[in-house]
């Protein structure tokens, strides 16, 4: 009897602990105070919003209507609080991406200065509800209850990015939109869309139709690991029309996600050269879209014709993408062809450039000047430091943090994306148990342990670290299903590093919250990696 009583009390206490522990939010908010009681979305509950936040309120309303089978409408009210409602109100005192959320048994109030802040409030609110709220259809008998609490939240970094390489493998608009949904759910604010590669040019450019007619299709693809010497013999291609790009940009806007387009130069240009060989160092060469992985020797020649071409391409790109940043690549540009080119060597003499790194810097500076003249900002991978950093460049530090540290010391903005912490193409578990990947070893815990503020920088210099980004290179990711497996849940850890205060980082607590969070990902039909579930 005593034993039974003991077991019963254990059961009750664990149930109470679980029911008190319903604040499984990722990324964890800056400040959360649990309160007793709950708010329940009843038949009579309404959503009330100022007109400024109406679109955000509608997003919430649509999801709650969907899962509860109701057909309520958002009530627009500029002033005054209603009872029994979820309310969106303005608070001028908050930061641009900040929000507060107060849930009491009577009402839930989300306050923000901007619609974007209110949107993040909604992401948190959804994570306070039962995980079935993420379902794609009506859930019979769902109780939409929110545990009472007060939350004050704002991001640690202003730039929180997730990248996708659609050059090595192409992914349709439907998947890109799903990816954007997942970006927004995790309070990332940037989608870095890597649109051109040696292995495929993926964006329609009206002035240069051959970029997609020729450059988007490779005649076959290497099978297995780089260097296998085996090919599948099957043409592979795909590209986004400008109409599709506009559709994605408009969609991302509704989720408060900015898209940073990347057009690679002067390297990773083989697909472009297959279409327009006159822009290469050897116009007589028969260039083909690259069929294997790795870095191609075929790079743009720094001729006037090339600059005209790239400026025309960038003009169309800037018309499609309204955000401030334009990424120009700049990584992994082999210099052999420039060394062997009479034109390049003469140009270097004329311009007083002492080596090919300075020639690359000359190339990037010209592009920087053009992008800056259009009121935009140029981003490049950290190789753009070699030969001298262009005046307005933002640096994406990928070969470790050294490039980012050097750039910050020169008062340049930096986005940290070091390969050893934030390359989600690396293995997440023992390669013997995993599908083929590029290499490396980056388990969830290591991603979570990343600290973006280098000790080498002073407090003043730290301000140049705008944030972080995880990169997803797709040489070995042929399907969207496999992308999801590689990206989640590691991107959840990236989101917490980017958003949450470093003082609140706690891996054990994160994985506990993650166990609930992946139920949400399951409802959203995300093929997340389940390995972490079998660890403690
Ligand atoms: C890169 O990973 N080549 C930027």
Describe the structure using short key phrases.
536 residues, Chitobiase, domain 2, 8-stranded parallel barrel, 7-stranded mixed β-sheet, disordered N terminus, binds acetamide, Hex-like_dom2, HEX_bac_N, signal, glycosidase, beta-N-acetylhexosaminidase
Q: Brief description of this entry?
A:
InterPro entries: Beta_hexosaminidase_sua/sub (IPR025705), GH (IPR017853), Glyco_hydro_20_cat (IPR015883), Hex-like_dom2 (IPR029018), HEX_bac_N (IPR015882). The protein has helices at 2-20, 54-68, 115-128, 173-185, 210-213, 242-254, 270-275, 304-320, 336-339, 342-351, 356-373, 402-409, 419-422, 444-448, 459-462, 480-487, 490-499, 507-523, and strands at residues 31-40, 46-49, 75-76, 85-90, 99-103, 108-112, 145-153, 159-165, 190-194, 196-197, 200-201, 217-218, 236-237, 258-265, 325-329, 377-381, 394-397, 414-416, 426-427, 439-441, 465-470.
**Number of helices, counting only DSSP H or I runs of 4 residues or more:** 18
Ions and ligands? acetamide
Here the CATH topology of the largest domain equals TIM Barrel
Instruction: Flag low-confidence runs.
Output: 1-20
Mean pLDDT: 95
CATH domain class name of the largest domain = Alpha Beta
N- to C-terminal distance = 33 Å
Task: Please tell me the total number of domains.
Answer: 2
How are the strands ordered across the major sheet?
A: 8-9-14-15-16-17-18-21
Q: Could you describe the largest sheet, including whether it forms a barrel?
A: 8 strands, parallel, barrel
Shape: elongated
Find the structural class using helix and strand composition.
alpha/beta
Could you estimate the helical fraction of the residues in percent?
25-40%
Task: Tell me how many strands there are.
Answer: 21
From the coordinates shown, what is the CATH architecture of the largest domain? Alpha-Beta Barrel
Beta-strand content bin: 15-25%
CATH superfamily of the largest domain: Glycosidases
Kindly provide the radius of gyration, computed on alpha-carbon positions and rounded to a whole number of angstroms. 25 Å
EC number: 3.2.1.52
Protein name: beta-N-acetylhexosaminidase
Enzyme class: hydrolase
Signal peptide: 1-19
């Amino acid at each position: 009897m005593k034993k039974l009583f003991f077991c019963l009390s254990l059961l009750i206490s664990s149930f109470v602990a679980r029911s008190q522990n319903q604040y499984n939010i990722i990324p964890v908010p800056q400040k959360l105070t649990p309160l007793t009681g709950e708010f329940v979305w009843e038949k009579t509950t309404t959503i009330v919003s100022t007109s400024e936040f109406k679109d955000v309120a509608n997003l919430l309303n649509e999801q709650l209507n969907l899962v509860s089978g109701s057909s309520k409408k958002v009530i627009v009210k500029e002033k005054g609080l209603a009872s029994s409602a979820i309310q969106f109100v303005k608070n001028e005192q908050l930061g641009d991406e900040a929000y507060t959320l107060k849930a009491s048994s009577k009402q839930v109030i989300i306050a923000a200065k901007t619609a974007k802040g209110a949107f993040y409030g909604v992401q948190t609110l959804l994570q306070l509800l039962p995980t079935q709220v993420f379902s794609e259809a009506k859930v019979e008998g769902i109780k939409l209850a929110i545990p009472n609490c007060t939350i004050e939240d704002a991001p640690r970094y202003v730039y929180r990015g997730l990248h996708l390489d659609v050059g090595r493998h192409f992914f349709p608009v439907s998947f890109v939109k799903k990816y954007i949904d997942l970006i927004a759910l995790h309070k990332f604010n940037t989608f870095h869309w890597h649109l051109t590669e040696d292995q495929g040019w993926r964006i329609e450019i009206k002035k240069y139709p051959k970029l997609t007619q020729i450059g988007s299709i490779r005649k076959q693809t290497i099978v297995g690991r780089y260097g296998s010497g085996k090919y599948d013999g099957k043409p592979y291609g795909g590209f986004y029309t400008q109409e599709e790009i506009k559709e994605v940009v408009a969609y991302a806007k509704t989720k408060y996600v900015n898209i940073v387009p990347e057009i690679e130069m002067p390297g990773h240009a083989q697909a472009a050269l297959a279409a327009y060989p006159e822009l290469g160092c050897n116009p007589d060469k028969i260039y083909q879209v690259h069929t294997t992985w790795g870095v191609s020797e075929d790079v743009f020649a720094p001729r006037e014709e090339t600059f005209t071409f790239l400026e025309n391409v960038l003009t169309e790109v800037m018309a499609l993408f309204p955000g401030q940043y334009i990424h120009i690549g700049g990584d992994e540009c082999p210099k052999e062809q420039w060394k062997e080119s009479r034109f390049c060597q003469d140009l270097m003499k004329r311009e007083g450039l002492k080596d090919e790194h300075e020639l690359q810097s000359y190339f990037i500076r010209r592009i920087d000047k053009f992008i800056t003249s259009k009121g935009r900002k140029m981003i490049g991978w950290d190789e753009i430091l070699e030969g001298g950093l262009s005046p307005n460049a933002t640096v994406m530090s990928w070969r470790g943090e050294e490039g980012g540290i050097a750039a910050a010391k020169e008062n340049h903005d930096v986005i940290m994306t070091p390969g050893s912490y934030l390359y989600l193409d690396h293995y997440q578990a023992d390669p013997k148990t995993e599908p083929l990947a590029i290499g490396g070893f980056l388990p969830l815990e290591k991603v979570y342990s990343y600290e973006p503020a280098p000790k080498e920088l002073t407090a003043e210099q730290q301000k140049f670290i705008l944030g972080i980004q995880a990169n997803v290179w797709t040489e070995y990711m042929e399907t969207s299903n496999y992308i999801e497996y590689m990206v989640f849940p590691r991107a959840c850890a990236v989101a917490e590093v980017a958003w949450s205060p470093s003082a609140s980082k706690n891996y054990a607590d994160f994985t506990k919250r993650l166990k609930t969070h992946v139920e949400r990902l399951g409802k959203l039909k995300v093929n997340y990696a389940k390995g972490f579930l079998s660890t403690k």
